[in-house]
TrEMBL record:
<dbReference type="InterPro" id="IPR027051">
    <property type="entry name" value="XdhC_Rossmann_dom"/>
</dbReference>
<dbReference type="Pfam" id="PF13478">
    <property type="entry name" value="XdhC_C"/>
</dbReference>
<dbReference type="InterPro" id="IPR052698">
    <property type="entry name" value="MoCofactor_Util/Proc"/>
</dbReference>
<feature type="domain" description="XdhC Rossmann">
    <location>
        <begin position="97"/>
        <end position="246"/>
    </location>
</feature>
<protein>
    <recommendedName>
        <fullName>XdhC Rossmann domain-containing protein</fullName>
    </recommendedName>
</protein>
Length: 276
């Protein structure tokens, strides 16, 4: 790969932009085999050499759908009677986990979130807490006011937000800022998950206020109290409960025990696979 193409790929990854690295693996002209292209989700294509525009058009036509579907595979392109084979390697943007608040629960949330493949951002308005020493597993630790942060942070369907601040008032102002932004967005553009910690009574009071201020928001992406009911007590257990709920939403799963798919062990029948 040329240095220019490598720099372009690195920039796409650092900016959290989906990209695909395309390599010509078969071509009638063997000197072309191994040539690489970089395709971005907006349809922009970069190459290492000055290939014909008609080849660019065909690569975009066949490879862009794969990029948008996050599929890595080999494709074959017919161009002027020539068969060209390309290997399309997709570099999808990881889901973004934003943890507002740098308390005891946030530490295992950030660590386990990173283990699950999320790009993890921790935000707190106290420099004493918002630092790399407390969150060595986070990709990004931000010291900022919550309102300023949530007013500007990019929000996509791959963004998952946790409001775990030290005071409920900070959770509420953060949630209000998020809802204010989301009301101007199409439903499919909004984050799939906003989790807010709190008791049922406190949450009832919050939503009594919110439903009047944000009448156009259906609140379906808000999860509060946060987490699945697994009897969590310690910060680590609570973190697992929260992240299990996020995975449930992310993977469009039920969250039920797999055991429920088996009605009775006594009725199970073991069938040995036949050897071919």
């Amino acid at each position: 790969m040329s240095h220019r193409l490598y720099e372009q790929l690195s920039e796409s990854v650092s900016k959290h932009q989906d990209a695909a690295l395309i390599t010509i693996t078969d071509h009638p002209d063997v000197s072309v085999v191994g040539s690489k292209f970089l395709l971005q989700k907006n349809g922009t294509l970069y190459d290492e050499s000055e290939f014909p525009l008609e080849l660019h058009s065909e690569i975009i036509k066949y490879c862009l759908p794969l990029l948008r579907q996050n599929k890595t595979k080999t494709v074959q392109i017919q161009l002027n009677g020539k068969l060209i084979e390309c290997y399309v390697e997709v570099f999808p943007v990881p889901s973004h986990l934003i943890v507002a608040g740098a308390g005891h629960v946030s530490e295992p949330v950030a660590e386990i979130g990173k283990m699950l493949g999320f790009y993890v951002t921790v935000i707190d308005d106290r420099l004493k807490f918002a630092n790399d020493e407390r969150f060595p597993f986070a990709d990004e630790v931000v010291c900022s006011s919550y309102i300023d942060f949530f007013r500007n942070v990019p929000i996509t369907p791959k963004t998952y937000i946790l409001l775990l601040t030290r005071g409920h008032k900070f959770d509420v102002v953060s949630l209000q800022e998020l809802l204010r932004r989301e009301e101007s967005m199409d439903v499919e553009e909004r984050t799939k998950y906003i989790g807010m910690i709190g008791s049922r009574r406190r949450i009832a009071g919050v939503f009594e206020q919110l439903k009047n201020k944000f009448a156009d928001h259906n609140f379906v992406n808000i999860h509060s109290p946060v987490g699945l009911d697994i009897g969590a007590q310690t910060p680590t257990e609570i973190a697992i409960s929260i992240l299990a709920e996020i995975l449930k939403i992310k993977n469009s799963s039920s969250g039920n025990s797999l055991k429920e798919k088996i009605s009775s062990y006594s009725k199970l029948k073991f069938r040995e696979r036949s050897k071919k």
